[in-house]
Amino acid sequence: MPKRPALNRWRDCRHQMTLLYYDPIFMEHQTGDHPESPRRLLPIVRHLHFLGLDVACRRPSWEPASREQLALVHTPEYIDQVEQFAASGGGWLDPDTRLSHRSYEVACLASGAACDAASRLAVGEDKTAFCLLRPPGHHATEDQAMGFCLFNHVAVAARHAIKSRGMNRVLIVDFDVHHGNGTQDIFYGDPAVAYFSMHRDNFYPHTGAALETGTGAAVGTTKNLPITMGTSREEQRALFDRELTAFADHFQPDLIIASAGFDSHVDDPVGSLGLHTEDFAAIAKTLLRVATDHSDGRLLSVLEGGYNPEALSDSITLYLETLLEA
Prior knowledge:
alpha/beta; seven-stranded parallel sheet; 326 residues; two-stranded antiparallel sheet
């Protein structure tokens, strides 16, 4: 279980800040009886408020991602498809991915949060940011929804940081239990964006083999670390720390974006790799150290998976505490 800070502890630590993005509209992506539902976020929001973590963070206002920003990653035809499908009332866009009437609006605001955070970190407004959003994004390819994902928020933010904010090299680090096939596909031939993923082996979407390393000028900018079910927590943490450190040392990123999935938690009903709540603090510490070494501390975290509301709330609380303590 995560440590429980005394109530109001963070209200007295205004010098310790991170950017926190959340809007109630994220609840309006209605999916019915589905693992990826509004039930994921409400316990987190309540818990962060109870502990005073929300007011310890800076809460920026932001705009939805523009069509031009989305088109940095997704085809215009696909953007139109999502917009029109939602406008018609929604339904199942693929066997796993359901939309409601406001889902396009919600997904645009989610991608906009990631872009706004990248912009603020790029100009030095803060060092760290956490986007508490839904739907997730890392399975979305340039022209296809899948795995609960509509738009690939981390991919849009990475391209935005390079095209508009002067970043030369962006490293995306994905620790969701599922491999981010969409993110990998989008950047597989792009040497400016590196992709590192630690995920469960032989698991949905059945991509992310260790031999997948990029193509053309981008060979070596993809690093997959598939983990066999049953691997100890200690070994997973050590592998993540060692392999990410070496990969980042080679790539030398200007910005690190984390696809922060918490569904490798032992109690997650959709994934699980046996990790406990406190393991996500260790992951955050590794990310912060790598960011300090290579990107002037710039670390943007974007929520992906995590489908046990209580475990997700506890894990995000400890992860966010770790950012604030940096």
